[in-house]
Amino acid sequence: MSILEAIKNRRSVRRYKEDPIPDEVLYRILESGRLAPSGKNLQPWKFIVVKDAKLREKLAEASVRQYFMAKAPITIVACGLPDNCYAHMGRYMKSWPVDVAIAVEHMILQAQEEGMGTCWIGAFDEAEVKEILGVPENIRVLALTPLGYPDEEPATRGRKPIEEIISFDKY
Amino acid sequence: MSILEAIKNRRSVRRYKEDPIPDEVLYRILESGRLAPSGKNLQPWKFIVVKDAKLREKLAEASVRQYFMAKAPITIVACGLPDNCYAHMGRYMKSWPVDVAIAVEHMILQAQEEGMGTCWIGAFDEAEVKEILGVPENIRVLALTPLGYPDEEPATRGRKPIEEIISFDKY
Domain boundaries in chain B? Predict the structure, then answer.
């Protein structure tokens, strides 16, 4: 599958089958995140792969109107390590959300190639998510995504026309 | 090219040929950014495609030790539209850097598929970049990347082993 094809076909999937995910598929998805670029190659991230059904339910409850996510067999919780950046980057210490976002999107595109569904979730109670998973105080949670086989084929949502978002040489 | 293959092959390219980029290639790269997901589908981004050589030189000067970028025939400047998010997202108003980062990484992976090089640049004087390109006060600049045919084959930089960045069910 080409990059642009995967990008065109990706949807935010909100209905999942409960079928388990083969280990080698999960590995390729995680590997695609591991290899992401990051500022100064600091890799300020950690990913929690949540398979336990009770924990997944709690995570869904800690999210805002995203209860559907509990049905997917895995929830990936993407954490950022700000201290890592503070120590090495000075004024660029705020780069960790960008770095973590890149790694998550790599996983989401690889999941698409594997025929799996995902859904970027940014609306959740961070303190609650941290408590559920034992995330240390100095670590941030940037996003969650369910991961599983889709049980729906959502229509595409529109995008702004290219003329509206691109300009040449000046803003 | 598969997603994981593109991810594995991507490098931060710091030496470029001056060969021009065919319009249809540039179009596919921009299109891959246009189709990126974003919080509430707000698409809080705008991309400036800088071809003018003098402007590219000025952008390189506004960047920190990244003078190499002026040689690539295009610099893409990725802007974020925070107001867009403030109006619609309340507490999630800070999502724009994540959204813009996803769109930029889409372009970077598509560029890889097209045989082109890129380099995430986050170290620049934002006020200076905004002045060079006439970017309005309420618009932010998240990142720049040169875009051109690579004139080097950089070695891979290491990554943390997967055990160090992945855990199961708990942090």
Answer: 7-149
Which two three-digit tokens encode residue A147? 């991961």
Check if the beta carbon of residue A15 is closer than 8 Å to that of residue A152.
Answer: yes
**Contact (Cβ atoms closer than 8 angstroms) between residue B48 and residue B143:** no
Residue of A nearest to B36 (CA): A7
CB nearest A167 (choices: B48, B55, B142): B48
User: pTM to 2 decimals?
Assistant: 0.96
B7: which 2 tokens? 């991810």
- A30·B142 Cβ contact <8 A: no
ipTM field: 0.95
Amino acid type, A52: D
Element (H, E) at A69: none
Check A7 against B41: CB less than 8 A apart: no
pLDDT tens over chain B, length 171 residues: 699 999 999 999 999 999 999 999 999 999 999 999 999 899 999 999 999 999 999 999 999 888 899 999 999 999 999 876 666 655 555 789 999 999 999 999 999 999 999 999 999 999 999 999 999 999 999 999 999 999 999 999 999 999 999 999 999
User: Which architecture characterizes domain B7-149 according to CATH?
Assistant: 3-Layer(aba) Sandwich (3.40)
d(CA A136, CA A61): 20
Residues of A in contact with B112 (CB under 8 A): 3
Chains A, B: CB contacts within 8 A come to: 186
Distance from CA of A69 to the nearest CA of B (A): 15
